[in-house]
Amino acid sequence: MGAGIFFYWFSWIFWIIITFLMNKSKFRTVLAYWILLSIIVSPFTLMIGGYSVAMTVFLLLFGTILLLVRQQQIIFNLFKSFTIMVGYTSLLFWEKISPIWIIAPRIILFSIIIGSIVTLISRDFYSRIGICLLGMLVGEVIYSFILASYGLHEHIGEMIFLDTLSWALLLLTILDILHKGKRKISKYNTKLQTKLEVAK
């Protein structure tokens, strides 16, 4: 399976969910356009100061900043994003230095680790998405800058990175759906117990 296939699959899945399942609002429309534009510009790159940067990175970074600005506790969320950035950059160097310790495919292992950390440090779904995006995007840039200082130039925002990012976002979405489902079941059980007690 070629690099980038998961990014395209999951992007279309997210677009379908947003377009057909979210309540109609300006926010929904902006999210849908954001995902479509990310898919459209993914094959294109820009050369900036000797660095090859995918246009998707700029688009995702711009959208992520707007998403985080909408949330409460902006400074706190930026600190959380910094934590994810450090964690993701460390994972990339771990893979570079000791690839033998990578016991599962990178896109699966990294997304599970990052997704788990984001879930632990944040509660709101959109804050989690913003923190994950910002942390991984900036982590990818920092990693490339550090490698460049040693004469090793890597493309910033290559398809395997977008695949990993997509898996992490999918994991956060699934966890949020399960959490909401659990709360609904809990509320239903509480109401049922109340009705049974009243009936007695």
UniProtKB/TrEMBL annotation:
InterPro entries: YphA_Bacsu
Pfam families, alphabetized: YphA
Bilayer-spanning residue ranges: 6-23, 30-46, 52-69, 74-94, 100-121, 133-153, 159-178
Coiled coil: none
UniProt keyword list: Membrane, Transmembrane, Transmembrane helix
Protein origin, superkingdom: Bacteria
Protein name as catalogued: Uncharacterized protein
Source organism per UniProt: Oceanobacillus halophilus
UniProt lineage: Bacteria, Bacillati, Bacillota, Bacilli, Bacillales
